[in-house]
Amino acid sequence: xxxxxxxxxxxxxxxxxxxxxxxxxxxxxxxxxxxxxxxxxxxxxxxxxxxxxxxxxxxxxxxxxxxxxxxxxxxxxxxxxxxxxxxxxxxxxxxxxxxxxxxxxxxxxxxxxxxxxxxxxxxxxxxxxxxxxxxxxxxxxxxxxxxxxxxxxxxxxxxxxxxxxxxxxxxxxxxxxxxxxxxxxxxxxxxxxxxxxxxxxxxxxxxxxxxxxxxxxxxxxxxxxxxxxxxxxxxxxxxxxxxxxxxxxxxxxxxxxxxxxxxxxxxxxxxxxxxxxxxxxxxxxxxxxx
Length: 290
Known about the structure:
The chain is of the alpha+beta class.
């Protein structure tokens, strides 16, 4: 079991498993991520109607909203990032918000790309390795340049992580462009764990609702073993840029993905972020009435 001290402002998401299940939370060293470091789990795996606009400076954005245009002109602050987070009501079903999302990790994502077995150009190995490392370290968009916040939810054996953060504009654009290349560069490759075990990784493009200023979605499937039993981790990744800020939604687990939930998180999360940047308070959802 790997333990890593706090390392960054956001966390990757994997399947939430019951006691004795297949995935583990792991840790690695670096900068503090959110409000907590990495934590370990018990098993080992081989391998986020609108309020009226106001010209008064918002405590969330730190700037005044324009009553005439309503355009997002604020700077994301720590309190604004927290206000932009989604809640259980935003994604409904039976998702439960957790307090330890910053500690989530999955050992199936730890591995070294087998360059010799790479199906695409061998020069793409560095990008595939970067993808694996970024998934585990939650650095798909690089290090935030400003405020950030995260929250996580569990439902049965699935997890959903929602992150919002401010980034350097140029670097954010570069990260989004890099993500767009991965379904070609890393369509399928093999990763080797510390014990010599092999995992097959597949990357395909995944649709994202047409919201925000730019967006990119991926689906990553990692097939490995736990003991002698085959296991497959499937993750849905959705990134949406709003100005120089972005939200990242990561969901999935050993039983596949939750497409409808991911879509709801992206749509509501983007709306929340736009509201905060415009100096408005995100509208509370009515919750699950089922």
